[in-house]
Amino acid sequence: MSKNGYLQIHDPLKPKGHAVGIDLGTTNSLVASVIQGKPRCIAADEGESNLLPSVVHYGKDGGVVVGARAKQLASEHPTDTILSVKRFMGRGPDDAETRKLGAYKFASGGKVVRFEVAGGQPVTPIEVSGEILRALKRRAESHFSGRVEQAVITVPAYFDDAQRQATKDAGRLAGLEVLRLLNEPTAAALAYGLDKGSQGTYAVYDLGGGTFDVSLLKLVEGVFEVKSTGGDSALGGDDFDRAIAQRVLEAMGQSSPSPTLVAEVLAASRKAKEALTDVPEVELTVGSHRQPVRREDFEEWIRPLIQKTGVVCRRALKDAGVTASELDGVILVGGATRVPAVRRFVAELFGREPLSDIDPDQVVALGAAVQADLLTNVDRQDEVLLLDVIPLSLGLETMGGIVEKLIPRNSTIPTAAAQVFTTFKDGQTGLDVHVLQGERELVEDCRSLARFTLGGIPPMPAGLARVEVRFQVDADGILAVTAKEQSTGVTQAITVKPSHGLTDEEIENMLLDSIDHAEEDVQARQVRQQRVEAERVLAEAERQLGEHSALLAEGERPTIDAAMTKVRELAKGSDHHALKEAIHALDDVCKPFVERVMNQALTKVVAGHSVEEF
Amino acid sequence: MKCWNCEKDTVGRPFCPACGKIAARPPGATHFDVFGLPRAYDVDVPGLEKQYRELSLKLHPDRFAQAEAKERRLSLEQTTALNDAYKTLKDGTKRAFYLLKLQGVDLEREDAGAQKDMPLEFLEEVMELREALDEAMEAKDLDRARKMGAEVEGRRKEALREAVDTLRTLETGVPVESSVKKASHALGRVRYFTRFLEQVEAFEEEMLA
């Protein structure tokens, strides 16, 4: 979209290293690549989980921590630790989604959501997502021992233009050339389709942490044609957690809970939700508050949310012109589809048992890796092609606040449309253009993407100037609008950025900052990481010592105290090797004590308690 | 058209026959030209679908992800035109409107004179239909709205058949002004009926939600 380009990453003479597929999820993110002909997810280390929790922690010293370690810091630093940042992509501060139950502090003013965090300026969701992408890029680079500069990043099919723009900008911030934004359900189908060589019409039901999507695809002779798509970009498994959390807060009598409490209750609710997949009842614990939660009740609380997905599925079937019985299969994607009530609902809605043989957490990333390979590997170019659609109609404001649709939803992309407007006053030299996205008729019910005035129209009598406004949607589903005055041959073209996005200048500044950041000493980053680890280990040791001092053996306390002092001292310095060793040493001296604590706890275990708490 | 790369004639093909590079779209190419089809109403839709897939496989921007900016732009232009052509030609109603547009009457434009040209009796009839539907909607009477929808759907089909028959006569020889007008009136009716049916559908959705 940008004429000048941000910083020129694209240089045809430079080898680009490996291309990867990235699932930038609400809860977890993954990076995958085609390795020896097969898509595989890349773990941080051999034997570790592929999932990188989509959590970014901002420390007081300006350090940034991403992933599992950041997640551990969430309950202690609820406002400095951003979870589920995807929910805020491309959103304004006044959006309903921004105001849902959560623990964040938002900076006031501006068109873009900004989180107030420790250690510096407020950060935008684009920057937070950029940190996650950068962590994944580093992970892939360490796996390949080489550079990774090109990526396919997945987005919910139902993401609007502003949300897509924001995702692409985050990729750029992380130093990635975004080869393609790929719709998540389409990615899932790609992962399934290539493995099985299927032909036919499939539905993909994708319920992630924060978004819901459904797509209907037809697979014929290597062409994946998306027939229709629908969804709700503000509905997901997080809302299931919230449904539990609300009841818990009510039961606790907390009408205006602190951010820390909200974060704790949400975390406990998520645990309870996950446990209820396997057992009919769990006991939820927050501090001293204990509350049994039965699967039956949980299913009752989330029923309205699940039913919302049914309405969307029926509309997608209708848009595709197929009935449920004509489908050849239904594919489940997203962690929230593990909830038994969701599976039952999908089976009933489509009249068949859904497929879930590829891990629903990994399938999107695997599909993205396949697409990245198709886009960069010349040998594979004749095999498979994806034809995707635009999820929401695009239109312009006309007289009386009515939206006139120029491109209807579910049009195959790339696509374009034009509309000619005439001036209504004598001598009028400017024309207001308001671009909207959505299905509703009135301007206030649609998403405002851009508003601009086309100037420089030569003065002439009303109705004589003819201005053609043209929409071009590219293969990423991103819109460019141009306007031209035709009657005099004077042409003027304008490219717009969405209202809820960042300006090119803002992106460029962030990009420059992030490059400084990337070139920072690797050692400094490791010191920061070890400091965070030190903080965590010290806090844990203090807690155990405080609660279980009776279990200490004779002479044990001074040894532990000495080890703790050493960690504290080294955390102030910059030798991360020494700090790491001190942390290990502390771990070692605490081990016998912690084992005693665990043994005692195990003998006391009641239903609903897990060993993981210790 | 001269090829941008080797300067030989591309003879309107998507790829230059001489050097094989993706070509620019010839100015004034119609949706029928995109598929190399004659400008006629009858189209073999399964054949069109197959051709669409084959052309997409060659022209899509995904095929040019690593190519030069110039080729990427041409791929975007050609695929955009291909998608537009396919969408129009695979649908019998859209195809009819497009053929009429090629005869110089564009009914899809809001300010088109042809729209104001509809016979008065018809416009009065449409007004009555709309009022009856409004009443049914106010009374939340889904059955009555559906019944009206079914009847209008019959009339829409009939009007489309009349338009298509007339358009077929226009395929051979010089355009006859009276025939163009006849086709334009018939499609004008299709347009009104389609809008009516959309309203019924929106009402149905509202009632079922």
Write up what this structure looks like:
The complex is a heterodimer of chains A (614) and B (209). In chain A, 36% of the residues lie in helices and 23% in strands. By secondary structure, chain A is of the alpha+beta class. Chain A folds into three domains: 18-236 and 303-387, Nucleotidyltransferase, domain 5, CATH 3.30.420.40; 394-509, Sandwich (Substrate Binding Domain Of DNAk, Chain A, domain 1); 522-613, Substrate Binding Domain Of Dnak, Chain:A, Domain 2 (Up-down Bundle), CATH 1.20.1270. In chain A, the strands form six sheets. In chain A, strands 1, 2, 3, 4, 8 and 9 form a six-stranded mixed sheet that branches. In chain A, a hairpin with a 5-residue loop joins strand 22 and strand 23. The longest helix of chain A is centred in the last third of the chain and has 29 residues, at 576-604. Chain A is globular, with a radius of gyration of 26 Å. Chain B folds into two domains: 1-90, Orthogonal Bundle (Helix Hairpins); 109-208, Monooxygenase (Up-down Bundle). In chain B, helix 4 (92-102) packs across helix 7 (142-170) and helix 6 (120-138) packs parallel to helix 8. The mean pLDDT of chain B is 90. At the A-B interface, helix 9, strand 16 and strand 19 of A face helix 2 and helix 3 of B.
pLDDT averaged residue by residue of chain B: 90
- How many strand segments of chain B? 0
CATH level 3 topology of the largest domain in chain B: Monooxygenase
**What kind of oligomer do you see?**
heterodimer
Percentage beta strand of chain A: 15-25%
Shape of chain B: elongated
CATH topology of the largest domain in chain A: Nucleotidyltransferase, domain 5
| Whole-number tally of structural domains of chain A | 3
Helix content of chain A: 25-40%
- Helix proportion of chain B: 55-70%
